[in-house]
Amino acid sequence: MIIGKIVKSDSHITYVCQINGAYEAQEKPGPTDYAFGRFVRIALRAPENDGILFAATSEREDAITYAVGVIYDTILQNPAFGTLGPRLSNEAQVEMFSPDYISEKAILTYVMILGMIEQRNMRSGTREYISATHGIPLLSLELDSQVETMDDEDVCAFHFFNDPTTPVGLSQPYSADAYLHIGYVPHIISQRNSLLPMVTLRIIDQLERLFPQNLALLSIVKRNFAWRLKVETAG
Amino acid sequence: MLDASHQSVLRLPRKPVGITKGPGETIHEYTFVSRDDEQQLKNGEYVYYELPDPTQSAQNGQGRRVLGRILKRVPLQLYPDTFLGEPEIAPSQVAAMMGYNSHTNELFELHVAIMGYYDYTTGSFINPWIPPQAGKQIFLADDAMLASVLSRKQDKQPGSATIGSLLTRSPDAVPVVLSVKDVVSTHLAIIASTGAGKSYLASVVIEELMQPQNKACVLIVDPHGEYGTLDQIMNGPLFSEPAEGRRAGYRAQVKIYKQDQVKVRISSLNMGDMRHLLTEMTEKQQYLLSQAMRHVKNLKKGTPWGVADLKRSINAVAKQKDDEDSGGDDSSTVRALEWRVGQRFEDSMTFDDTQHLDLPEIFKPGQCTILQLNDVDERDQQVIVATLLRRLNTARMDTERGKVHSGEMYLPYPVFVLLEEAHHFAPSGTDVVSTSILKQVLAEGRKFGIGVGLITQRPGKLDADVLSQCQTQCIMRIVNEIDQKSVASAIEGVGRDLLNNLPALSKGQVIVAGAGVNTPIICRVRTRHTPHGGESKDAPDMWRTYFNAEQQESKKRSEAPLNGNKPFTLLR
Lengths: 235, 572
Fold this sequence. Notes:
A: alpha+beta, two-stranded antiparallel sheet, 6 helices, 9 strands, globular, B: alpha/beta, eleven-stranded mixed β-sheet, 16 helices
């Protein structure tokens, strides 16, 4: 489901998404669609002839590469805030006579990019996941790109994959089989934002639900974060 | 031979194991960093770096290899403690989940004590007096190199005693070879707590000494009768060699003297021995006895004398004294002394009027003589050892100085005496009758060719001077702290760091240091060629056999009352 569009960026990996308001899209997203810790994806519009950066991921024409991000902050934008003076018309009248003014009220969510996923959406409705990578994407997003929510299947595909084979001479990968990845955690931690550690806990909660077989593994990370955030900061 | 081993080293592809980081904590240490994927850089392992050799041409490419021993291994990169929170989850799995998907993660800083480069002409290690530059490649010393530089002799060379192999390498890869010449001339000490394998190691040394490359002349003083199994040496093909050309054939001999065969001739005792054997003599008795001994010696002029002669001399001396000053009555002293001498020496198993151990018979090259002193009183043991060492020392001194040319005191070859339970013969704190002669032999033995091997389980109880005279030390597991300290004070400085490993050594592992080897080595003792006799008793097994069916019958027989429980008289 499309929840909004990119309107601004603070850095290569942090973007601001304006949530679609009433009349802006067919379906108005509900508050749970842009909740704290929600995984979203934004399609990367790669130039057709740029074969270097996407050679490995977009061999097929119908494959789409998405940047995957997580919502970690929300701001309710209200230009009318602070103008306390008397108004000639009430809310209902303003809505009727100057609808663009109303749309200046907006919900902005901050999205941090965690990695990329390449997938092919079949006509039958099934999806084929081609690759997933965690870390900083090479390309930046474009303004007005659509931000979509990810369902459980997408989230699972983004987290459970096998390492690409490494060229000869480099150290061998940990395992040839697919396993749970949260390779973006180190770069979340390195950002200076008080909400990001909390979003990590939120992510782990979601992953615990999606990957019950990896509870012990996730509990290590979760306990570590919980201790640092909850016990050490309080003590 | 050394050149051949060098060439074989050159042919092998060498792969550095690490890179020098910088100087270590002391001036003769350096540190290097290694990933050590193959887990081969163990504590005590030998590594080297190369220095250009100014004496060789530049084209040669072969530099000096500065050998060092790894002292400590400090991990530089460890998983965070929190990764270790789930026992079922490997920390590498957590790291992989976080995106670190490489197998290798360990990095170690290794502290190395510089031993120096080996100089083949002087046969010793020469310290370069400078730590390696940062960034120098470190190589693991290969087996051939270690075999040629750690030991003074090579395996099976004349004068070599291969007691085992280097502990950090696979068995038999790097033989640890003692130089028999140095061991015999500067003495040996085998120190270990009970059950660590002292007598096993001593037997291995004896086996080596009896092999054709040494053909040694060995005497073992065995207070526990543990060395009896060495008589198998006589049957072993390893201990013989066929005659070849002008060389005569060789077969090692082993002679075991049981306690009733070990005799001390009374005339070989001196006043110190008497004082030791007849404890708590009064001043008067001592005076009288010393006069009597002088008297009997003058009377017999070098020929043996017995108890009866001594008693007669006591009476004669007392009578003479009575005549000189008619003041006091010494008859009670005389009677008491006579009685004590008679009681101590008449019917004694050890002391005899005429018989004693014949030196040329017990000391022969190619012969190992074992004196089994079990059941002999400790004081008697001390006197046996003291008189034997005294006679041996005199014989060797007189032979070397050309005073004798034949007969009982002529011993024209060096000998090696192994003293088991050495702390009985030179205890610390007190002087016993054997202490002074043992000290004398240890100090002067080098000149006259008497080598001594001391075996003890309580180095703390052994006289410190005696221990420090033993220039080759074989130290096995010691748990007692006092004993550890006394060993540390006796061992040479280089190997002191090795002593930290003492409690960690297992049975059959030994630290060899001193004159017999080029550098202190941790060694795995080889398997004996002859069966071992010093094992602990398997009590439960012996109890079980007692109740075996076939044993029951014989037990009944042996426990059955003879003759209706009446006393059984043999003399009828």
